[in-house]
Design brief:
Elements (H helix, E strand, L loop, with lengths): L1 E10 L8 E8 L2 E6 L5 E6 L4 E4 L1 E3 L7 H4 L4 H4 L3 E6 L12 H7 L15 H9 L6 E7 H9 L8 H16 L4 E5 L10 H13 L3 E5 L7 H15 L2 E4 L12 H14 L4 E5 L5 E4 L13 H8 L2 H8 L7 H4 L6 E5 L11 H8 L3 H12 L7 E4 L4 H8 L4 E3 L24 H12 L5 H8 L1 H7 L15 E4 L20 E6 L2 E5 L2 E2 L7 E2 L4
Parallel strand pairs: 1-4, 1-5, 6-7, 7-8, 8-9, 8-21, 9-10, 10-11, 11-12, 12-16
Antiparallel strand pairs: 1-2, 2-3, 5-17, 13-15, 14-15, 17-18, 18-19, 19-20
Helix pairs in contact: 5-6, 6-7, 7-8, 8-9, 13-14, 16-17
């Protein structure tokens, strides 16, 4: 007898092919049959009129710590996600010299939520093995985290000898199960690395045949230098390249996206394996601390706090001619919103134009004041800005090798994560993609859209038994109503679950049934050598 039979679904196999009307039988966590199934299953799920798809694979998340704190991944499972890829933008939970470094580097760090019992990357994965996971997890190792493990807070590039130490840590992490290597070159300390150093490390990604994923150095005024560096590094290292959230930001010329896509196509034609992804909304989010010039971030929290409270130093910080967001230098504060704060939760959701008026302060001073008030947790202060273009997103989606990602955290609106916000669409990114770009705007067919969420990211990762519906594949399956799937998140209400997802299976375990979350958490840690 089959364990589960999904009946009468509109089956999309994840390859982009047309749908078929079929049943799917599941046995021992894998797909056992597809077609008209006469045998009964121990569990029968009705999918009449519903789309049946491989589970969605989120190729770019920052859930490294939040999954350790609450592995149920409620915000993701509720919208059909069955696999997450953490450790992006150069930031990961390991390797580290000490627990203090983990606190500084871990996205979504929450004091007291986790017994931090790891330093190496392999030990971090072992820790996740002991967590009840609602999704499968593949983890990249971050360049910024490796840099800190070798150089600490030093505000300088690594020496040749230190690069050798960084390479040794990267190789140890890849041997320990890391699924890829990532950089965040717009952030400190990634901003200190030069192309020669990055190429030396990317060569190890090539050696182990894993992805090199990069948040490029610049996506506004000098966007072509940022994308050009990424392509040149991959070419020189002979590495497979994933350009993370390729959307140009405010300050880039109108043709920047078209030019960036042309650069990728040209590199691909000359032998570089490059693909890219987009966030399915026009909001860009990051740590507020990233707005400070590099010199102002050196030395840790105490040193940063002293600079922010020194009037002369503050004035110098505000004169920064190259802030991460050019909306700041342009003074467009009504497009920048406070997204997460422990010290000032009453201000979350307000624009900095509103916060400045409420406090009777210049918005820029309000930003720096909030960092000071966050104290030891200033690294977790988050904001978001309307920096991206809908037209750019649609342009990128027109290319076959464009995946769709969340760039967010796996969260839950209860417990230790209830005040966290990963992004304004963290609870609804996949739903919004299928609702806004597919159903409402018709940018892609449903079958092709599902390929961007399933077999495309699986192929980029090198995972053969997930991402498509075929006999023998892992039973990661999402069943949803394509006519009603919807995101309900906005600036005022960022923590509402998506709707329209009926059933979700992870390794054959039923994580959602009839639109309700179950107690089943059957996700696994995926290791590169596993």
């Amino acid at each position: 007898m089959l364990d589960i039979v999904i009946r009468n679904g509109r089956v999309f196999d994840g390859t982009g092919a047309d749908e078929i009307l079929a049943d799917i039988g599941i046995k021992d966590g894998r797909i056992a049959a597809i077609g008209r199934i006469e045998d009964a299953g121990e569990v029968e799920l009705d999918a009449a009129g519903l789309a049946v798809s491989p589970g969605f694979i989120d190729l770019h998340t920052h859930s490294d710590f939040t999954l350790a704190a609450n592995g149920k991944a409620e915000s993701q499972v509720h919208q059909g996600v069955t696999t997450e890829v953490v450790g992006q933008c150069g930031v990961s939970c390991a390797p580290a010299r000490n627990k203090a470094d983990i606190e500084l580097m871990a996205p979504g760090f929450t004091e007291g939520a986790v017994d931090v019992d790891w330093l190496s990357f392999a030990d971090y994965l072992d820790h996740l093995d002991g967590v009840a996971l609602g999704v499968n997890v593949a983890a990249f190792v971050g360049h910024g985290t490796i840099h800190r493990a070798v150089l600490g807070d030093a505000l300088r590039p690594a020496s040749d000898e230190e690069v050798d130490e960084m390479k040794a840590l990267l190789e140890e992490s890849l041997e320990g199960g890391a699924y890829g290597f990532s950089t965040g070159l717009e952030y400190w300390p990634g901003s200190l690395a030069d192309p020669d150093q990055l190429t030396e490390m990317a060569k190890l990604a090539a050696k182990y045949d894993v992805l090199y994923a990069t948040h490029v150095r610049n996506r506004d005024r000098f966007y072509d230098l940022g994308f050009g560096e990424a392509l040149a590094t991959a070419r020189a290292a002979e590495a497979r390249l994933q350009i993370s959230h390729i959307q140009p930001k405010y300050g880039a010329p109108d043709y920047a996206m078209q030019h960036a896509l042309e650069m990728c196509s040209s590199a691909r034609a000359r032998g570089t394996d490059v693909a890219f992804d987009v966030i399915p909304h026009d909001w860009s989010h990051t740590r507020v601390l990233a707005i400070l010039p590099q010199w102002a971030q050196e030395g840790g929290v105490d040193a940063v706090r002293q600079r922010l409270t020194d009037p002369a130093m503050r004035a110098r910080i505000k004169k920064n001619p190259r802030p991460m967001w050019r909306l700041v230098s342009a003074g467009i504060w009504d497009k920048i919103v406070l997204m997460q704060s422990d010290a000032n939760q009453d201000l979350v959701g307000m624009t900095f134009d509103e916060i400045g008026r409420k406090r009777g302060a210049d918005p820029y001073d309000a930003v720096l004041d909030l960092l000071v008030e966050e104290d030891e947790d200033m690294n977790q202060l988050m904001w978001t800005s309307q920096s991206f273009s809908e037209d750019d997103i649609e342009l990128a989606l027109g290319h076959d090798d464009c995946a769709v990602i969340s760039d967010t955290l796996a969260l839950a609106p209860y417990g230790c994560l209830k005040h966290h916000i990963g992004s304004l669409s963290g609870y609804g990114w996949a739903a919004r993609f299928l609702q806004h770009y597919v159903r409402d705007r018709g940018v892609l067919t449903l079958g092709e859209a599902l390929r961007r969420l399933t077999s495309l990211p699986a192929a980029r990762l090198g995972i053969a038994d997930r991402g498509t519906l075929k006999v023998g594949a892992r039973a990661d399956i999402t069943v949803f109503d394509a006519k009603t799937i919807e995101s309900h998140t906005d600036v005022d209400n960022p923590r509402r679950y998506a709707t329209g997802v009926a059933h979700v299976m992870v390794n054959g375990g039923i994580a959602m049934r009839d639109g309700e979350r179950t107690d089943v958490n059957s996700g696994e840690v995926l290791r590169r050598h596993g």
